[in-house]
Amino acid sequence: MTGNPLTGVRYSILDLATVCKGDTVHQTFERSLHTAQHAETLGYTRYWFSEHHNMESVASAATSLLIGYVAGGTQTIRVGSGGIMLPNHSPLIVAEQFGTLGTLYPHRIDLGLGRAPGTDALTAMTIRQAPINMPYDFKEAIESLQQYFRKENKTAKVRALPGEGVALPIWILGSSTDSAFLAAEMGLPYAFAAHFAPQQLKAALEIYHSRFQPSAVLKEPYAMACVNVIAADSTAEAASLSTSLYRMFLGIFTNSRSPLQPPIPYEEMEQLWTPEQKYGVMHMLSESFIGTKEKIKEELTDFVTATGVKELMLISQVFDQQKKLHSYSLISNLFKGR
């Protein structure tokens, strides 16, 4: 590693397939593909989609289909899930879907797994056809999934075809300390959702690194953190662009999940939220990096040094597509020492 800690860190993108005001869902998917193609030219390592349901502002419900769409429109960038909410699915179905993806796009597909519902309680119960508080063994489900991918499973009565023998990295995702213990115990790579739940980031990473047990797939711990990043050519522009992100999270507090709104002058935000709502939004977005390239470089360097993560996954909730691509371009240069 050189004197710049960022040059030794991989950088990737998380996409919610966020619907922008005035766009159709089809246009949203085209934006995602365009962004992934741009990211590929900039040297980003991965492009992940998250699973969400029953949200007007997010179109990533059929996560595996979007992964296939983007993988088919790119050449080298890894494409995957950040993540598949495993309690919503049978491990066999996940193995078949990702076995298919891994067969079509060998050595390019990642399978990140989470245990949260990715939606509200009623929708989760509808998906699972079971009460949301029904006992669930996340570890057992992951082990079942791993078994379906093994070549040795060919003698089993139930097999994942395709899927069997497909080399596919499995990640454990978390937004609290619970999954950190499991990722460490199972010797799997770990990704933390600091872009909306930063409060337990430090504790979770400490648990993961200190308790990690080497496995057949990973000899040393490998942690990634997802953070919000909005880069622009000026501080004022970055502040204005960030209002789309703030209004999106304000919708969580006001139960208004509308499509991503166009930016407004930052000072106008004071008319849209109460002091309590502002505090709540800023608390959720405390690990966000917004500003010029120089400012973000300094802050990300401190973040990487403090956390010891080997990879950063970035999400840039910018309304204008060209400004979003520009944000990702500016950020990529930091990891190249520029």
Automatic annotation (TrEMBL):
Signal peptide: none annotated. One of its GO terms (molecular function) is oxidoreductase activity, acting on paired donors, with incorporation or reduction of molecular oxygen. It comes from the Bacteria. One of its GO terms (cellular component) is cytosol. Coiled coil: none annotated. Residues 18-308 form the Luciferase-like domain. To bacterial alkanal monooxygenase alpha and beta chains. This is Luciferase-like monooxygenase. It comes from Niabella soli DSM 19437. The lineage of its organism: Bacteria, Pseudomonadati, Bacteroidota, Chitinophagia, Chitinophagales.
